[in-house]
Amino acid sequence: MTVAVPAAGAFNAIPGRGVRATVEGRQLAAGGPNLLASLDAIPSLELQSFTDESAARGQSVIYLVEGSRPLAAFAVADAVRPESAEAVRRLHEAGIEVVMMTGDIRAVADAVARDLGIDSVLAQVLPQDKAANIERLQQQGKRVAMVGDGVNDAPALVTADVGVAIGAGTEVAVEAGDIVLVRSDPRDVPRIIKLSRASYRKMVQNLWWAAGYNIVAIPLAAGVLVPWGVLLSPATGAALMSVSTIIVAINAQLLRRTHL
Question: What is the DSSP letter of 183?
């Protein structure tokens, strides 16, 4: 069966809401619940029932609207990547709260959150409101890491304490992120957290070693123990300083053994 698709003109995108175009002289728009709210469009009981059933299955609904009258609804769903649940589990094991911020309706977002074990959900968030939501979390005393890949995520990535951009995402998001993941694998997020914590531990260990070593070695080299017959020659002092540097370098190399 062949279906003739008429050409669309005067096409334009409505950020965070949907798209609008003229088709055969009719002004049509397509988008989610935010589009309906902006047009004061109220779906019929049949379309609302369809929406509720789709939301219960974790599916988003896209509406076709003419003027302020919804004509049809289409259920769509993104397949949840199997590694996402593992990524959330690893973040929980690391003591990190996971928040999902999405433009989808609450019912769909809650269904996905239940499947993945996500702690809390910010639903029906418009692109311009993402950064404000990050700021609200920060005002609660939380340090926020934002993971995103789209143009609309860029302000939130900049606002967050740490912005993690997906390398396969848009260039704007990559430029805005503090960290760029080469792969599109959500499990890399807990990996970089584990690596950063291990790196910090090594820095503290080396700092304490270097400081403690110098606190003891410098007075010895200055001749503090000369009255007791202990005197370090310049050559011995230089050798001991080299040993300290070698120990710090070896300890840093042990970071390679961190299992990610």
Answer: S
> Among candidates 196, 197, 209, which has minimal Cα distance to 250?
209
Reported pTM: 0.68
Per-position DSSP letters for 15-82, written without gaps between them: TTTEEEEEETTEEEEEE-HHHHHHHT----HHHHHHHHHHHHTT-EEEEEEETTEEEEEEEE-PPPPH
CB 105 within 8 A of CB 55: yes
SS3 110: helix
Q: Is 184 helix (H, G, I), strand (E, B) or coil?
A: coil
Type of residue found at 35: L
CA distances from 188 to 34, 67, 89, 116 (A): 32, 45, 13, 16
- Euclidean distance between the first and final Cα of the chain, in Å? 52
Task: State the DSSP H helix or E strand holding residue 244, giving kind and residue range, or none if neither.
Answer: helix 234-253
Could you read off the pLDDT tens digit of each residue along the chain, which spans 260 residues?
677 777 878 888 887 788 888 888 888 888 888 888 888 888 888 888 888 888 777 777 888 888 888 888 888 777 778 888 899 999 999 999 999 988 877 877 888 888 888 999 988 888 788 889 999 999 999 999 998 887 788 888 889 999 988 876 677 777 888 888 888 888 889 998 999 899 999 999 888 888 877 777 777 777 777 777 777 777 777 777 788 788 888 888 888 887 76
Phi and psi angles of residue 110, each rounded to the nearest 5 degrees, phi first: -65, -35
Return all residues near 17 (Cβ < 8 A) that are at least 6 apart: 31, 32, 34, 35, 38, 126
